[in-house]
Amino acid sequence: MNILEALEKKVPTLPEKYRQMSMEELEERVRNVKTRMGNRLFLPGHHYQKDEVIQFADARGDSLKLAQLSAENKEAEAIIFCGVHFMAETADILTHQDQKVYLPDMRAGCSMADMANLTQTEKAWKKLMDLFHDTILPLTYVNSTAAIKAFVGKHDGATVTSSNAEKMVTWAFTQKERILFLPDQHLGRNTAYNLGIPLEHMAVWDPIKEELVYDCALEDVKVILWKGHCSVHENFTVANVHQVREQYPDMKIIVHPECRREVVALSDEAGSTNFIINTIEKAPAGSSWAIGTEMNLVKRIISEHTDKHIISLNPNMCPCLTMNRIDLPHLTWCLEAIEAGEPHNLIEVTPEIAEDAKKALDRMLSRA
Question: What is the DSSP letter of 217?
């Protein structure tokens, strides 16, 4: 289910009283619920969350790590996922049946995940099968809906993360001659390029026009990239890189592989969120860095590493707007409603979708 479908459901809106509370009162209420519920409650928080929310996280990490930690936490009855919709879906797929997963604000979706829906993907698959026959294995970034994960799982494919994408693409090519990479074209392109696949052997599937765009002979196409992207990372540009190089000649640039190929090519380092965090932590005091990733995280890294000179690669970037939907009023409301036995915003993946989606996740996890 994408965010639009979620909004079409009858979802209760935040009561006005929570909007009127001070930050101090909200923080106290959250602490009190966490204390009273203890181990029955687990609150995972994604790296891109606001500081007002992340301060209460029982664990910080990327989406898959948090879903895995949720699954490992056998004591928690309620998991309040501070992230976006597809992340909570993954947690629901991997956790036990008697555990419940909640999203504090159902408007917290992901524009990238919503760029590939099941109808579009099934149409694309049929046309690609007509072109290439049974020579394609689908892979999907974990930043996708449960329905897309299920589609991939049903067709013998797997999920990937930004950390293990190279390993999973390498595995995929032992299974089939070609891959279809959903839904982020930039991560797919950067990963395939790093593995030695020429850019001219990569095609792009446009789900709106329902056509394949390629520059080589059809039989030479090895990677089919879904025309999707992260609205945050696509806004880092070559001009940003040139500006940093001109203003700070000795500064290193590190970016997420969801950035455009030309930006990654001009940067000093590229890697997952955890790679970026670990690289900065290990960097010597006095070193200088421009970071190309989500602004909430960049600001947190800056505040935690005052011994280094750190800036955003694009100083005009805004935080991820959908991640920012999760705020302290919504978190407080969600927690108090659960404690009162009147929970809302329950994330439930149907058993049929969950079964196939888990196949895609398990194929990845077995190779972790």
Answer: -
Same domain, 219 and 268: no
H helix intervals, 38-105? 51-54, 63-72, 85-94
The answer to whether residues 296 and 319 touch, using CB atoms and an 8 Å cutoff, is yes
Mean pLDDT along residues 63-73: 84
Burial (CB count within 10 angstroms: exposed 0-12, middle 13-18, buried 19+), residue 108: buried
* Per-residue pLDDT tens over the stretch 301-356: 999 999 999 999 998 877 777 777 899 999 999 999 999 999 999 999 999 999 99
Q: What is the CATH number of the domain that holds 177?
A: 3.40.50.10800
Please state the domain count of the chain. 3
Question: pLDDT tens, 241-258?
Answer: 999 999 999 999 999 999
Pairing of strands 211-213, 202-206: antiparallel
pLDDT of residue 8: 46
Are 222 and 287 within one domain? no
Q: Which has the closest alpha carbon to 106: 230, 231, 3, 1? A: 3
Within-domain flag for 59: yes
Q: Which tokens hold the place of 257? A: 């592989």
Question: How many other β-carbons are positioned within 10 Å of the β-carbon of residue 24?
Answer: 8
The whole-angstrom separation of Cα 233 and Cα 240 is: 12
Give SS3 for 103.
Answer: coil
Asked whether residue 365 carries a pLDDT value surpassing 50, the answer given is: yes
What is the arithmetic mean of pLDDT over 148-164? Answer: 96
Mean pLDDT of 267-279: 96
Q: Which helix (H) or strand (E) holds 291?
A: strand 288-292
Calpha distance 42→23 (Å, rounded): 22
Instruction: Give me the amino acid identity at 11.
Output: V
CA distance 6 to 8: 5
The two three-digit tokens of residue 206, written as one number: 């446009």
Structural domain boundaries, residue 275: 233-312
Same domain, 121 and 226: yes
User: How is residue 247 written in tokens?
Assistant: 């203003």
The pair of three-digit structure tokens given for residue 149, joined into one six-digit string: 């994960």
